[in-house]
Amino acid sequence: MIQETRVVLRNAGKINPVKAEEYAARGGYEGLKKAVGIPADEIIGMIKESGLRGRGGAGFPTGTKMTFVKNTPADKKYIVCNADEGEPGTSKDLTIMKNDPNILFEGMAIAGAAVGADYGYIYLRAEYPYLFSLLEEALADARAKGYLGKNIMGGSFSFDIEIRSGAGAYICGEETALIESIEGQRGEPRYKPPFPGVAGLWGKPSLVLNVETLANLPPILVNGAAWFKAIGTPTCSGTKVFTLCGNVANPGVYEFPFGVNLKTLIEEVGGGVAEGRQLKAVQTGGTSGCITARTKSISAWISKPARKTARPWAPARFS
């Protein structure tokens, strides 16, 4: 079986997830320490150079999205974490938050330093109620240790985070519907433009990124853009966290560089189709993805490398 390349899951199973000092002992918050000591444009430049794209499905360049928010004048800006992981059978963001919530907190704080925001919201999927208390405990510990709140690590930068729970609405995975829900409104998408980077939460510029995207920011700040860009493919840098489920022998959540193909995921990582069954179809990207039925050419199809986009109607291909 091919070996995983763990970037955002590097601490999974190795630390107490609610203890900030254990996260820090493994290099945690070093990225934030670096971010608060350099100009915001330098942070964004590093993210752009790394080639990091959104891990929520659309694959939009993260550094470009940050630039929109930073360059919009406002007296208040927000970081919004989309943790409304609603695609059936998907638990990649759950795995990140359950095992290493501090990497998410640090990523949000780095994003705040980059765009000029001092407050963030985690919009948590309603079906993860047990995770709410874990995140609250981890947040309290991070504040107590000086990694969140006023004057972080004794400096002039302040950033804090609040958790909001969804209400089980699938549509709130869309960023503007999510914003409406945080504001206490019915979760329905807004007309765009204006985009959230210009007029988002409470009409203020808001950077909306999903859990996995934010979790990639600390390692990029620590290890550099060139290190990150060397992982994956020329057009999709870094790793991807995959939820492998269904009738496979070894279901689970795995992290591999972009470029791994579906045949490898199914046959080597997943151990092949479960005993007594035959491969009939492969679905990628959840309900908004695509289903490919078993044909003579399916072996060729699942051997294709994972790509940024596949079809215009499949925006969540890699969820």
Itemize the secondary structure elements and their pairings.
Elements: H1 20-25, H2 30-35, H3 40-50, H4 62-70, E1 78-83, H5 92-99, H6 101-115, E2 119-124, H7 129-144, E3 160-165, H8 175-182, E4 206-210, H9 211-215, H10 217-223, H11 225-229, E5 239-244, E6 252-257, H12 262-269, E7 281-284, E8 290-293, H13 298-301
Structural features, described:
The protein is α/β, with parallel strands linked by helices and 319 residues long. It is built from 13 helices and eight strands. A hairpin with a 7-residue loop joins strand 5 (239-244) and strand 6. The longest helix has 16 residues, at 129-144. The two termini are 22 Å apart. Mean pLDDT is 89; it is low at 306-319.
Question: Which descriptors would you attach to this protein?
Answer:
Rossmann fold; 2 domains; 13% strand; disordered C terminus
In short:
The protein has 319 residues and is an alpha/beta fold. The protein has helices spanning 20-25, 30-35, 40-50, 62-70, 92-99, 101-115, 129-144, 175-182, 211-215, 217-223, 225-229, 262-269, 298-301; strands at residues 78-83, 119-124, 160-165, 206-210, 239-244, 252-257, 281-284, 290-293. The chain contains 13 helices and 8 strands.
